[in-house]
Every structure is written in C-alpha cells, then in structure tokens.
Write a structure and sequence with these properties.
By secondary structure, the protein is mostly beta strands. The chain is built from one helix and eleven strands, in the order βββαββββββββ. Strand 1 (16-18) and strand 2 (21-23) form a beta hairpin.
Length: 112
C-alpha cells in the first residue's frame, strides 16, 4: 500500500501525487503536498508536569533561576503572564516584571 494520505474531503485511499499536489480520483479534490508535510511537524511544548502549553498562557517558575551575567534571580513562584512559544532550546519567550524580556525553558515552569 502507498504512504499517501487519504483524501480530506471524501476519505478515499486512492489518492495520487502530481506536480506537487495530491489528487483524489473519486471526488477530484486537490491539495498541496507542502501543507500535509507542514502539519506533520507540529511541535508540542509541555511544562514540568506534562501539561501542554499554548501562546498566552500564564505559568509559574518552579525553581530559582539565576540570570547569566547579572546578580538577578527569578524566584520560585514567580508568575509569568502571556508567554509566547518559540523554537529553540529556550522555548518560552516572555516578559518578567522587574527583570524584563527573557527566554525560559519549559522544564522549569508549570501551567498556572
């Protein structure tokens, strides 16, 4: 059997690929192969407890975090509102009151 996806419109398994598009011979629906490949790469970011994080969530820091190059520390229990998820090692982009903009690792926060 082929590895091609079923038709999203009629669920037919007889799809074929032609010039960068998938085509369904039963209902004549066409869709891009790029859209299907991009949807397979959805990255799920989870907090320290395994809860899924989303943009705009409020999180709480679970460990004292020293800020490199300064004497500042983000204390345990600090609430961070309106996070943004980004790609990379530090996958949370946020603004902490009294400290400013910074990036955090999701393993050091829990969803509030």
């Amino acid at each position: 059997m082929s590895d091609l996806p079923a038709c999203p419109k009629c669920q037919s398994v007889y799809t074929y690929e032609d010039a960068g598009n998938y085509i369904c011979p039963e209902c004549a629906h066409e869709w891009s192969t790029v859209a299907v490949e991009a949807s397979d790469d959805v990255r799920v970011i989870k907090d320290a407890n395994g809860n899924e994080l989303n943009d705009g969530d409020t999180v709480t820091v679970i460990k004292d975090l020293k800020i490199k190059g300064t004497s500042l520390v983000v204390k345990v229990g600090t609430k961070v509102k309106g996070i943004r998820l980004v790609d990379g090692d530090h996958d949370i982009d946020c603004k902490i009151d009294g400290i400013g903009a910074m990036k955090l690792k999701s393993e050091f926060v829990k969803k509030a």
